[in-house]
Amino acid sequence: MTLNEMYLAMGFKSRYVTCMPKDDKDTDCHVINSVYAETLKKWLWMDPSHGTFVMDDNNNLLSVEEVREHLKNNQSLKLNAESKVSKLWYLDYYMAKNLYWIQCTNKSLFNTESRYRPADPNLQYISLVPSGFDKSNNKYLKNNVITFDPAYFWRSPQ
Known about the structure:
This protein has 158 residues and is of the alpha+beta class. It has one domain. The chain contains 4 helices and 8 strands; from the N terminus they run αββββαβαβββα. The chain has helices at 2-9, 64-72, 87-98, 150-153; strands spanning 14-20, 30-37, 42-46, 54-55, 78-79, 101-105, 125-128, 145-147. The strands form 2 sheets. It has a 6-stranded mixed sheet. It has a two-stranded antiparallel sheet with strand order 4-5. β2 (30-37) and β3 form a beta hairpin. The longest helix has 12 residues, at 87-98. The mean pLDDT is 90.
């Protein structure tokens, strides 16, 4: 979450996005950063853990939503040259598994989940899940705002 704090300190809207698998017994997930690009009017994929961002064939930076759509539709994707991982492992295996449903907070702010200050009573977790997803037994979705609408989940920051 350090990259999130750095983007916020520089004045960018930023949030971390928890990427979750379909299998609720799979305890592996991955957290990436999403920074809002005013000029592009979208949230961009930035993964500090692997030094990675994702592009299309024309070298356009992509959002998490666009990467998910490219993976679902078997469209070409590529990683930045400095990435620490291969595209085959990172996107086609690891992130494809962990992009089934995603979660973020409703606020773009510093130290969102701090243990050292009182919890913000207006902080909510929003989860974008595919329609038909059985969320009844998923402990990570408890008390979340659930949406099936990517436009709602990825709306521009206030």
